[in-house]
């Protein structure tokens, strides 16, 4: 507690990480967790990569998840979300894609403002991000407590990267895309894993990409299962647990989205590894499904598609 108080005082004094202050509630949720958290240092194509790892409290080996954060980097909320997934029974690794890019060679926490974090994440090269995700996936799937299965779960900017990771990572078992844009149509042919989409009904900017994605994935013979949560805005998985949130639809979508995510992960968890080839069989693409929430107000991030 004394160390945390000192860090907070230093941050106020030197004006660092306004984004971190805005998510103190998420840090408090994380501090209350009984699960084991640790930070690891990896190498991604010869460059350092810091990552946050959370272990579940289970008796058997668990499926591994690469959690890809929002455009806000490895924030308190991203770590809290990783902890929530570990609480559901999975080993979760969340890489800091801004490792070494902040002031004095720091990562996400070293940037003076959330705006600067957003700009830095927006400017990342996709090939570099894929190398970071590969390094995180290689590490987490080889842990003694891991069962060898792998899923990617991404939000906002990270949602788009989760979809892109499915075009890149051949041994990925499933990709979960929360309100992120799709990859190029030409890249979809390389996807081996089923892709599950989660979208807010009041997020027209991202929702406008869904019809074309359905058609493209269908044409490529790939499984794409999108669900839209009516009444929720962009970023509902974060907003739905934010104490300052006033949009009931975000809270409802968060609860329903998390339930759907863990249900699909549980199906993956019970599928024998030797039958993974079944995931490569083309599956019909369902029509758009809409889940009704209780509000019509939106909470959207003010950024263009390229920044997602």
From TrEMBL:
What GO molecular functions are on record for this protein? hydrolase activity
Region (Disordered) residue ranges read 269-288
Which keywords appear in this protein's UniProt record, sorted alphabetically? Signal
Residues spanning the signal sequence = 1-22
Q: Which Pfam families match?
A: DLH
Q: Does the keyword DNA repair apply?
A: no
Gene3D superfamilies xrefs: alpha/beta hydrolase
Output the superkingdom of the source species: Bacteria
InterPro entries in the cross-refs: AB_hydrolase_fold, Dienelactn_hydro, Dienelactone_hydrolase-like
The Dienelactone hydrolase domain covers 49-262
Q: Does the keyword Manganese apply?
A: no
Q: What is this protein called?
A: Carboxymethylenebutenolidase
Q: Which organism is it from?
A: Terriglobus roseus
């Amino acid at each position: 507690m004394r160390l945390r108080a000192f860090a907070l005082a230093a941050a106020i004094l030197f004006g660092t990480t306004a984004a971190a202050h805005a998510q103190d509630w998420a840090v408090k949720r994380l501090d209350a967790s009984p699960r084991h958290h640790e930070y690891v240092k990896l190498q991604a194509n010869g460059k350092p990569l810091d990552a946050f790892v959370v272990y579940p409290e289970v008796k058997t080996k668990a499926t591994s998840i690469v959690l890809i954060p929002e455009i806000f980097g490895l924030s308190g909320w991203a770590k809290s979300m990783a902890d929530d997934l570990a609480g559901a029974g999975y080993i979760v690794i969340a890489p800091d894609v801004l490792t070494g890019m902040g002031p004095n060679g720091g990562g996400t926490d070293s940037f003076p403002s959330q705006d600067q974090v957003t700009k830095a994440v927006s400017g990342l090269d996709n090939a570099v991000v894929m190398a970071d995700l590969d390094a995180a996936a290689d590490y987490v799937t080889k842990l003694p407590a891991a069962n060898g299965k792998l899923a990617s779960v991404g939000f906002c900017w990270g949602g788009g990267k989760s979809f892109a990771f499915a075009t890149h990572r051949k041994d990925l078992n499933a990709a979960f895309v929360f309100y992120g844009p799709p990859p190029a149509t030409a890249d979809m042919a390389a996807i081996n894993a089923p892709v599950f989409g989660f979208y807010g009904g009041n997020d027209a900017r991202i929702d406008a990409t869904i019809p074309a994605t359905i058609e493209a994935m269908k044409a490529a013979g790939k499984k794409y299962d999108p669900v839209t949560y009516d009444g929720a805005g962009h970023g509902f998985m974060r907003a739905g647990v934010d104490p300052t949130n006033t949009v009931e639809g975000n809270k409802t979508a968060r609860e329903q989205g998390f339930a759907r995510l863990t249900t699909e992960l549980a199906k993956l968890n019970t599928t024998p590894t030797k039958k993974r080839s079944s995931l490569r069989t083309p599956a019909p693409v369902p029509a758009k499904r809409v889940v009704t929430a209780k509000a019509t107000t939106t909470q959207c991030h003010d950024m263009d598609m390229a920044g997602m």
